[in-house]
Amino acid sequence: MANHMANQSRVRRMLILFLLAFGTTAMYSLPYLKSSFYDPMQQALGLTHIEIGNLLSLYGLIGMFSYFFGGWFADRFSLRNLITFSLIASGSLGFWFATFPSYNTILLIHILWGVTTILTFFAASIKVVRMQGTEKEQGRIFGFYEGLSGVSGTLISFTGLYFFGKFAEAAIGFRYVVWLYSGASVICGALLFFLIAHRSSTTDSGEPEEKTTFRSLMSVVSMPKAWLIGLIIFSTYVVFSSLTYLSPYLSQVYVVPITLVTALSIIRTYVIKMVASPVAGIVTDKVGSSISVMFVGFIIMAVNCALFLVIPKGNAFMWFAVVNMVVLSALLFAFRGIYFASVAESKIPMKTTGAVVGFASFIGFSPDAFYYSVAGYWLDKYGETGYSYIFMLSVACALLGVVATFLLRQINRREAAGGGMTLSPSV
User: Fold this and answer.
1) Burial 306-331 (b: 16+ CB within 10 A, else e)
2) C-beta separation of 331 from 300 below 8 A
3) CB–CB of 70/118 below 8 Å?
4) Which of 18, 40, 147, 286 could be disulfide-bonded to 170 (CB atoms 3.0-4.6 Å)?
5) What is 149-170 written as a DSSP string?
6) Which helix (H) or strand (E) holds 323?
7) What is the chain's alpha carbon radius of gyration, rounded to the nearest angstrom?
8) 1-197 and 216-416 have identical folds
């Protein structure tokens, strides 16, 4: 009987992770439609390049503040209600978007997406993922979740491409793609309402679930651990964002055929993600520390990025650059699978997990607000030399990650040795 109950619980947890990963992938595909369907979107909506750029900039700006204050929502309100509301509301906005309204209405939809996909969702989803495993399983759980996101992305992307093959007119195909993402988001939201347990008074560990006040949210700003987790995510995210420029770099500098570059981009985005994140999770649980794994990983990452500065240019060295890109991609997707496991490892109480995740994400994902503009400026002004600046910045961020993981590990070890003593904010 006990085994049956345990198996039932395990199936339930896996189902929650799968539906959350699938719904999240579908939901986030909506504000980022331009990434995969730029030309059809432009044709269907009749937008200029600047107008499309403004949409993402506005969404990113709303998102930056939503990451921080989203932690307050995740710690104060029902996780089940937040997840369900976010997925259903985002999908409903997608159906509105599919009517191809005026530009001002599309701007409003992107502002609302900044609220429904980040403010009420992001920190809450991280907290739900954390609750699906014990403290010793966090690496595996987050790695598995990120891997499922890769599987979901593959399924939904290829389904979307099917619609474009089916309809001669790009605008019709684009509308069906938006309907697909919106419908998947709404369905996952509804199903998760019945699967995620409704908790209001206690956490999984049995400790009271204190309602987070604005004052306690702001107190996270004085936590060294929250800053360090944020810097770990920041370092990873800057280098991850640099992957965008590896495709044109390989084709321009190493004369890699465009078909091979496209194939490598697909492998990098989906295949590596599906494998690297779960493997990183398993390794983390074996080692017993996501922070130690990332410390070593950041050192390798710094060497990896530096190699792009010294590998001789030209077609003869093409495969050196390709292999280096694959290794770097694997490291980055591995990190994306485990960096939030550092929250549990750092003994952050469940009741403040949302606030810490929110603040760390505010720092960690802030490159969305400036990185692409800076990198674009370097490439426009300096041409091929601009790529060197991108790699130099990546090396610097990887080294920042080495320092951040080292300090976080030291703080955790000192606290463990001192029987739970916390360090002052000045550390």
Assistant:
1) bbbeebeeeeeebeebbebbebbbbb
2) yes
3) yes
4) 40
5) HHHHHHHHHHHHHHHHHH-SSH
6) helix 318-338
7) 22
8) yes
| Token pair belonging to 156 | 């939904």
How many residues comprise the chain?
A: 427
Q: Whole-angstrom Cα distance, residue 185 to residue 328? A: 31
- List all residues 6 or more positions away from 250 whose beta carbon is below 8 Å from its beta carbon: 256, 261, 264, 318, 321, 322, 325
If one counts every other C-beta atom within 10 angstroms of the C-beta of residue 175, the result is 19
Residue 8, class by beta-carbon neighbours within 10 Å (0-12 exposed, 13-18 middle, 19+ buried)? exposed
CATH code of the domain made up of 216-416: 1.20.1250.20
Mean pLDDT, the chain, whole residue set:
83
> 300 is written with which tokens?
């390798």
Positive or negative torsion for Cα 74, 76, 80, 82: negative
Q: What gap in Å lies between CA 244 and CA 227, rounded to an integer?
A: 26
pTM: predicted TM-score of the whole model, two decimal places: 0.76
Instruction: Burial-class residue 208 by CB neighbours within 10 Å (0-12, 13-18, 19+).
Output: exposed
d(CA 426, CA 131): 31
How much is the pLDDT for 201? Answer: 34
CA of 401: how far to CAs of 1, 86, 361, 411, in Å? 47, 32, 15, 15
Domain boundaries, the chain: 1-197, 216-416
pLDDT beneath 70, residues of the chain: 1-8, 35-36, 38-39, 49, 164-165, 168, 199-217, 258-259, 262, 266, 270, 419-427
For residue 129, the tally of other CB atoms under 10 A from its CB is 22
Quick check: 146 and 20 in contact, CB under 8 A? no
CATH architecture of 1-197: Up-down Bundle (1.20)
Of 288, 277, 375, residue with least CA distance to 334: 277
